[in-house]
Design brief:
The chain has 286 residues and is mostly helical. It is built from eleven helices and two strands. Helix content is 71%, strand content 1%. Helix 3 (52-77) runs antiparallel to helix 5 (98-111), helix 5 runs antiparallel to helix 8 (206-223) and helix 7 (164-200) packs across helix 9 (225-242).
Length: 286
């Protein structure tokens, strides 16, 4: 993230410099998403998810997601994509970026029927992005860190001390980030199962959504060790269950068949086989 405004500026100037950046618009998008999800959850738990307010806040949440990921993609590629560049190479570069993938899937959810579970992965990401921006930008802008006593800005060990609130937020992010990314991976897999169930019950448009989301989840599996780990843990749990002597052999055979099909599908859709090398490491979704 970009550094906060210089501490020697007046408060009004620090706030002005902060509020006129694309990064602040990105923060507002994540913050708006959290507010919209909170308001939608109130409608959902009161069995009023079809009301006008619920529909508005649901769409607003995904509109905010589109805005935030659009800003990240714009900042990342405005200087990298040159006029006259090879269209195929540019498309592959864009589609292999996790932020582009989340931008595209948020557009899908924005124009699709309501699926409340689809909000949750974006919500988890927004919690951490809002927390991180608050710690690194908002708090220093309103309460600049003080120089440690007996030191100068250029002296060894002269780092400025952060506020207790900033330290608390930093500890929260550090302590719960991995667990939260594991939760996101589990939610994304659960969402795929939810779409599969809708497809089997012939819900309108479910097969199309399932196909699109399967492509997205396959890309996530390629790039996220959290998703790989979540699939591995799920497979291990099912393996343990089907080894129960009370489970009919046909069930065990069926599960082995499903695993075999899954492995073949993953291998056949590994883009590294067709691009001549391993994909570059991607930044985490923002």
């Amino acid at each position: 993230m970009a550094p906060p405004p210089p501490a020697n500026l007046p408060l009004a100037e620090r706030v002005k410099k902060l509020a006129t950046t694309l990064q602040f618009a990105w923060f507002l998008g994540h913050f708006t998403l959290l507010l919209a999800v909170f308001r939608y959850s109130l409608s959902y738990i009161t069995f009023n998810s079809s009301s006008k307010w619920a529909t508005f806040t649901y769409r607003l949440a995904f509109l905010s997601a589109v805005a935030t990921y659009g800003i990240v993609v714009f900042k990342a590629y405005r200087a990298r994509v040159k006029p006259g560049a090879n269209p195929a190479s540019t498309a592959l570069m864009l589609l292999s970026d996790e932020n582009v993938q989340y931008l595209l899937i948020s557009l899908v959810w924005l124009y699709s029927r309501q699926i409340p579970l689809a909000l949750l992965p974006f919500t988890v990401y927004s919690v951490f992005h809002v927390a991180t921006y608050t710690r690194t930008n908002l708090i220093p802008a309103f309460q600049p860190p003080k120089q440690a006593a007996g030191t100068t800005p250029t002296s060894p060990g002269g780092a400025k001390s952060q506020s207790p609130l900033a330290n608390t937020i930093g500890k929260f992010v550090k302590d719960y980030y991995d667990a939260s990314m594991t939760l996101v991976a589990s939610l994304e897999i659960g969402l795929w199962a939810r779409l599969l169930l809708s497809a089997f019950t012939f819900t309108k448009g479910a097969w199309i959504l399932l196909g699109i989301y399967t492509v997205f989840l396959r890309a996530r599996y390629q790039q996220s060790h959290f998703v790989q780990s979540a699939f591995g843990q799920f497979g291990a749990r099912v393996d343990q269950q089907v080894q129960n002597p009370n489970i009919p052999p046909a069930v065990r055979q069926g599960w082995e068949t499903i695993k075999g099909i899954g492995r073949k599908a993953v291998d056949a859709t590994d883009l590294r086989k067709y691009t001549g090398g391993a994909a570059a490491a991607q930044k985490k979704p923002q």
